[in-house]
Amino acid sequence: MNYNRKVLPNGLRIITVPMPSFESATSLVMVGAGSRYETNKNNGISHFLEHMAFKGTKKRPSAIDISGLIDGIGGEFNAFTGKETTGYYIKSAISHVDLCLDVLSDMLQNSKLDPKEIEKEKGVILEEINLYEDTPSSKIGDVYERLLYGDTPMGWDTAGEKDVIRQINRQDFQNYMQSLYSADNIAVVVAGGINEDKTVTLIEKYFGKMPKFDTLRYQKVVEKQGKPKILIKEKKTEQVHIALGFRTVPLNHPDRHSLAVLSAILGGGMSSRLFHEVREKRGLAYYVRTVSEQYQDAGNLVSTAGLDPKRAEEGIRVIVEEYGKISKIKNQKSKITNRELTKAKELIKGNFVLALENSRSVAGFYSQAELLEEKIENPEEIMAKIDKVTVSDVENAAEKYFKEEVMNLAVIGNFSSGQNFEKLLKL
Question: pLDDT value at position 274?
Fold first, then answer.
């Protein structure tokens, strides 16, 4: 897969990714702005702004004007917010890319931020927060990162705190945009069956006059941990949800690919070690999975599972045991086999290829790389690096990062303390 990159005089990055067989295209605007740039006085504003962008501009005064326009071309539009980026996209037939870029630029540069709409949308945001609170399989990730990063922007929920959301006003939105929505902190990516020259010209037309200014810097993660840590969110549930893992490395660290393969071996599919041991062999959980997560200055590998409350301790013990087995490479019984390694690498590459059959995923891939990584690597380059990972690389990663003193356990369930679990966190 090939791409072309251009930087405008105002610093805005343009990436076009031709996908010749496609009759559609995704136009994505990605901003280097997310919840880690927030304060305790505006926590949740990154996500809230994502909602407000669709609520009307000077040219298209209401939400129905925007949604009706995109529905009228059979398009799909949405946005998403993470800790480090916020994205806005429209996917449409290639004949409508001009309109899509017009709408996206209008939303980012001319949003009305109507105080009445802000007040109405607060109710929507609060209900979204309630939804996540009532979905512990999703919420457990937030609890785990609160445990890792504490009372800092990286440890706060992206959706925000209810009391803070209720106080946010129009000036708060304006101040936030003026601190982060600089042209040189934005990447516009269009992927699909496009004419590249025409697409670049359109992006220049709609985004070329955006202002450039010095942007806010994020608070760096400080990681100090000398013993296992536990955080319990007490909630009456039918199932105990856990997240159990270790601190690892940032996004641009060379060990990231070894950790990706390690996570796939542990919990990357239905034949993974944890799926077999926790679900198939013992019937302790419906879901169990492992992921390796990286940010610009921190990372972690974590396994999540939904467990029978009466057998939660057993489930945690089994996961810890599997961590211990895979990190003790002298233990020949649990040594990673070449077959296991190959299967894990093919799983990663296969999932990657399937995702990249969607222009939305392709646009997301290139925009994240542009804003967060040291350089853009094509999918083929990344898969080549995955291919180069050896059994020794994976075992060395397990030895290096699976340390008892940096083990962390987050729990959502009807428990008042972590005393019963502390004894389990021993490799």
Answer: 97
Q: Where are the beta strands (DSSP E) in 32-173?
A: 76-81, 86-93
Can you tell me the mean pLDDT for 394-413? Answer: 96
Helix orientation angle between 312-327 and 391-401, rounded to the nearest 10 degrees: 120
SS3 per residue for 283-307: CCEEEEEEEEEECCCCEEEEEEEEE
pLDDT at res. 418: 72
Question: How many other C-beta atoms lie within 10 A of the C-beta of residue 77?
Answer: 20
Both structure tokens of 108: 């980012």
Question: What distance in Å separates the CA atoms of residue 45 and residue 25, rounded to the nearest whole number?
Answer: 29
CB-count burial class (<10 Å; 0-12, 13-18, 19+) for 272? buried
Q: Please give the Cα distance from 40 to 299 (Å, whole number).
A: 23
Domains and CATH numbers, the chain: 4-207 (3.30.830.10), 229-422 (3.30.830.10)
Tokens in use for 25? 């295209």
Place of tokens 């649990």: 334
Is residue 50 flagged as an active site residue?
A: yes
Tokens describing residue 90: 């429209």
The active-site residue out of 23, 38, 50, 381 is: 50
Dihedral over Cα of 129, 133, 134, 137: its sign: positive
CA 253, 255, 260, 266 torsion-angle sign: negative
3 state DSSP class of 233: strand
Give the torsion sign (CA, 239, 245, 247, 250): negative
At 134, is the secondary structure helix, strand, or coil? coil
pLDDT category at 91 given cuts 50, 70, 90 is very high
**Rounded Cα gap, residues 248 and 295, in angstroms:** 10
Cα torsion angle, 344, 346, 350, 352, sign: positive
Residues 312/240, Cβ–Cβ less than 8 Å: yes
Residue 226's SS3 state is: coil
**Half-sphere exposure (Cβ direction) of 35: Cα atoms closer than 13 Å:** 24
Contact between residue 306 and residue 283 where contact means Cβ atoms under 8 Å apart: no
Mean pLDDT value across residues 106-132: 97
69 confidence band (pLDDT: 50, 70, 90): very high
Strand partners, 303: 244, 290
H-only helix segments in 254-358: 256-267, 273-274, 312-327, 338-355
375-390 exposure pattern, b = at least 16 Cβ within 10 A, e = fewer: eeeebeebbeebeebe
